[in-house]
Amino acid sequence: MSHKPSWLIFGANVLDIDGFKEVDFIVQDDQIVQVGKMSLFNQTLVEVSTKIDATGCIVFPGLVDPHTHLRVPGGEEAETFISGTKAGAAGGYCALLAMPNTEPAVDLPARVLWLKQMTQELPIDVLSSAAITKNRAGEELVPFASLKDVGVKVFTDDGQGVQNPRLMLRALQYSNELNLLLAQHCETEELFNGGIMNEGSVSERLGISSIPAAAEETMVARDIELARSVGAPIHFLHLSTTRSADLVARAKRDGLKVTAEVTPHHLYLDDSRLEGFDARYKVNPPLRTKQDVAWLWEHLSDGTFDVIGTDHAPHPSWKKDTTLDQAAFGMLGLQHALVVLFTGAKIAQSYGIAPNCLPPGIDVTIDNLNSPAEEKGLLRWLWLIVSMMSWKPSRLIGYPTGSSGSLQTGSFATFVIFDPKAFTQATYAKLYSKATNSPYIGETFNGEVRDLFVKGRHLVKNGRVIEEKNWC
Amino acid sequence: MNPDSRSYLRASGLLTTAQLDYEDLNDLISKAIHAKEFGATENLLAGTELAMMFLESSTRTKVSFEVALSRLGAKSVNFDAQSSSFSKGETLKDTVATIGSYGFDGLIVRSAAVGAPDLIHNWTGLPVINAGDGAHQHPTQALLDLMTLVEYFGSIENLASLRVGLVGDVVHSRVARSLIDVLLKVGATVVLIGPATLLPMVSWEEKVERSNDFDKVLSNLDVAYMLRLQQERISEGLLPSNSEYVLRYSMTKERFARLKDSAVMMHPGPVHPGMEIASHITESTQSLIRTQTTNSVFVRMAVLAEIFRKGESLVA
User: Fold this and answer.
1) Nearest to B91 among A201, A204, A318 (CB)
2) I need a surface site. Which of A66, A107, A274, A325 has the fewest CB within 10 A?
3) How many cross-chain Cβ pairs, A to B, lie less than 8 Å apart?
4) B137 touches chain A (CB under 8 A)
5) Which residues of chain B carry a pLDDT beneath 50?
6) Which position among A157, A271, A311, A451 bears the catalytic label?
């Protein structure tokens, strides 16, 4: 009989890759050791030291962010490994893919190894991506094979796109042979042209220099054709416009290995937020129109998008608390991503948009919730959102110990306890990021990331990060 | 003036024409015209001290505000952007906090940054008069243009039957954005005239007409308001050349002759001779350009008085 600390989680509905099931489970060390009905557990095998009542909650695999700007090295004024991973944990994340646009950029194996060494003691995993071009200058390729040898799978010049089409073509050819993934930040610089916000009726009324949707769409279209010619996969980061999503949908119908990311903020905020000149809403790609937001939900519904990435982009206050033309692009995302989307799904549902791409056999009938039809619809949305924030990004970025999407005996005890009936108030005081540039401050969202366990460690309790023993 | 508008004006200043309704416009313009004809209450703003923050160069607007302040007995202190601590790397917010700590009653702000006057008001809590922010707004310019039109056409009610053409670089013009708002409020018909690259693509499309052909719409206009054209528009690829602009959109002698006899021409200044307007016609009786500059002082007096007066009104 074991005397190690162990946990019994009971009363919850478990959401995983197979659907929903009403089960209790026991956690010991870093694993789930028994799953089933609490009354039938073999108590002689494991002595439960703590019981957690999760009645009314949904338990699902830990989230994986395929797009985090952790800012280290070079941007420690805005975020540190500790503050960034705490913000991630508070949002339900067990792993973050750090973007390489640091100072210096991650473009050499030594920088990847340094990052690995600096983050290995943290309670959630920090994975490294690398640039496509040296110093993200868009001129010469990085040593893809050497970077692969130190574990890098995803390559991106994120923050800007690879402008030169010939160089992008070569990058696709070279990396495809090594089974690597190129992730493009789609933006044609000459069309971007120093713009501040989305080009549309709001920018024209305010007289603010603007970024046309075509700045993004022209590069999406270009790279689809480059990838087609090579037969290589291509991943598009943070797509924000109606036409970008349409182009990806069509490429998928053509059978190309195209994948696409969408962010919580492009699914929740629109360009009218800029009317008060508040630079917290300045982000790149820019917040688009209300019509774009609705259309992005349609493309979530039909399966065009594969993953949800936060594009968490902390900045020190002096870079945001200024006029729109001077302010930096980017907003915080990790801590509130899930509740923003859960709230957004409710809005999408009210417009009659329902998730239509759930695999057959996903059973979202939850008897003990006794829920009306719209709540069942919302649970179907939650399943889709969680899949795009957990096992799908885990697979896409090649997270080695990542979530398979299953919560069963023998799985890592990495899971979120989500309370769909609770509310999350976004306030400055509760932010874990070192930076404060959250666009969500002052708003209340549906749902709460109540608890987070990562490999058996209890990192979040009642919505607050347990800092002792975990981050010291 | 609408009481809500007045209390907003006194707390926030004049940030945008959007905060003024028809009644407010009528009241401000009537007071400005009255002050022009009969003089203003002396020393109405004695003891008032304002900071002039001109972060972008200006001659006429700045001088006109200074004259208006001086006529009302108020004092102003100039904050010069060139010699400021910006050049030492201080942020705008810190600079503004410093200026705010000196106890001014309000600020007059010009900036190339859209929204700077709103942010400066938020940061200081003081009333701010927007003297032009980027391509967004220049509310006192719209008011002085409105005053000029009311004087010429006899009353604010008469403006409802006018067709006003705004000609040239509408999309980069804060004058156009403020003036369109004001003209629509008084019921005028607005026609935006220029090449597709210099006209807005989507906004105002329901209420505002647009044309790429000045020669075609010219003879139906009551007012031809010529906008300033900046040389950068050619290097930015928005226009092929100066001569092609002149060919299609300049107020040449020939086009001026085709205006209705009752029609007038305006320009916010400074005029770029030979580009927007042929040089010898600015002094014509059908040109209101000189009246616009004269009226700028009286309109600014009316605005300043409404925001900062303690008791008495600008006019008896």
Assistant:
1) A318
2) A325
3) 58
4) yes
5) none
6) A311
* CB under 8 A, 24+ apart: contacts of A170-177: A170/A141, A171/A132, A171/A133, A171/A141, A172/A226, A172/A227, A172/A230, A172/A232, A172/A234, A173/A230, A173/A232, A174/A141, A174/A144, A175/A144, A175/A232, A176/A230, A176/A231, A176/A232, A176/A233
| CA–CA dist A261, A266 (Å, integer) | 11
Q: Buried b / exposed e across B129-158, counting CB within 10 Å, b at 16+? A: bbbbbbbbbbbbbbbbbbbbbbbbbeebeb
Same domain, B286 and B302: no
The CATH number of whichever domain residue B189 belongs to comes to: 3.40.50.1370
Q: What is the pLDDT of residues A73-97, one digit of tens each?
A: 999 999 999 999 999 999 999 999 9
**Chain centre to alpha carbon of residue B88:** 32
The token pair at B155 is 């009353």
Q: In what order do the strands lie in the sheet with A50-53?
A: A31-36, A24-28, A6-10, A50-53
Interface predicted TM-score of the whole assembly (ipTM), two decimals: 0.93
Distance from CA of B276 to the nearest CA of A (A): 21
Per the domain annotation, does B72 fall within a domain?
yes
CB contact under 8 A, A277 and B200: no
With CB atoms and an 8 Å threshold, state whether A207 touches B113. no
Interface of A with B (CB under 8 A): 199-201, 204-209, 276-277, 318, 321-326
Of the candidates A204, A205, A324, which has its C-beta nearest B113's C-beta? Answer: A324
Nearest to A201 among B91, B136, B202 (CB): B202
Alpha-carbon distances of B184 from B17, B142, B153, B170, B234, rounded to whole Å: 11, 12, 16, 16, 31
pLDDT in tens, A291-342: 999 999 999 999 999 999 999 999 999 999 999 999 999 999 999 999 999 9
Look up the CATH architecture of domain A62-350: Alpha-Beta Barrel (3.20)
Q: Of all residues in chain B, what percent carry a pLDDT higher than 90?
A: 83
Residue A184: how many CA atoms within 13 Å on its side-chain side? 33
Give the strands of the sheet with A444-454, arranged side by side.
A19-22, A13-16, A58-61, A415-425, A444-454, A457-461, A464-465
> In this structure, are B104 and B33 located in the same domain?
yes
Q: Is residue B315 part of a domain?
A: no
Rounded percentage of chain A residues whose pLDDT exceeds 90? 90
Across the interface, do B136 and A276 touch by the CB < 8 Å criterion? no
Q: Residue B74 corresponds to which tokens in the numbers above?
A: 């108020």
Closest residue to B92, CB basis, from A205, A277, A323: A323
Domain that holds residue B27: 3-137+294-308
Give the C-alpha distances (Å, rounded to integers) separating B62 from B130, B151, B152: 12, 24, 25
Same domain flag for B102 and B70? yes
Domain positions in chain A are: 62-350
B144 and B280: one domain? yes
Q: Do B203 and A318 touch (CB under 8 A)?
A: no
Residue B257: inside a domain? yes
Shared domain for B89 and B167, answered yes or no, is no
Q: Do A204 and B202 touch (CB under 8 A)?
A: yes
Q: Which residue of B has its CA nearest to A190?
A: B236
**Domain count for chain B:** 2
- Residue A367 catalytic? no
Q: pLDDT tens for residues A119-170? A: 999 999 999 999 999 999 999 999 999 999 999 999 999 999 999 999 999 9
Same domain, B117 and B183: no
Domain shared by B164 and B302, yes or no: no
Kindly state whether residue B285 falls inside one of the protein's structural domains: yes
